[in-house]
Amino acid sequence: MKALIQRVLQAEVRIDGAIQGSIGPGLLVFLGVERDDNEAIADRLLQRVVRYRVFSDDDGHMNLNVLDIEGSLLVVSQFTLAADTQKGLRPSFSAAMSPAEAEPLYDYFVRETAQYVPVQQGKFGADMAVSLINDGPVTFLLAVS
Prior knowledge:
By secondary structure, the chain is an alpha/beta fold.
């Protein structure tokens, strides 16, 4: 399971022009579910996401996490994070979990993460327009298997 996290001042996701979710300061999380992922892997990843220190302290060092700043998460499903880009000029998605299996795991990640921080989300499998004001920019790819 992979999470591409971006530190944001604000972010929102729209579906058919309507706002589906929006946050102020926090993390925009693009979540990719891979073929062998399960709830235990999701638990490990969500712990990393909410505790990953990407926010600056008073000295300008990245020592604070989203919990420390009382921020929020905007979680957006992103199956393309499971792409194999090692060969050729077209990505392979053979490592991605099928949508029927991935959606409950995505929902689990969102539900469990919401026990720690406020969470907004996109809609699994939908075409979405995501906008953000990047803070930094600060972007990390977290992967757990």
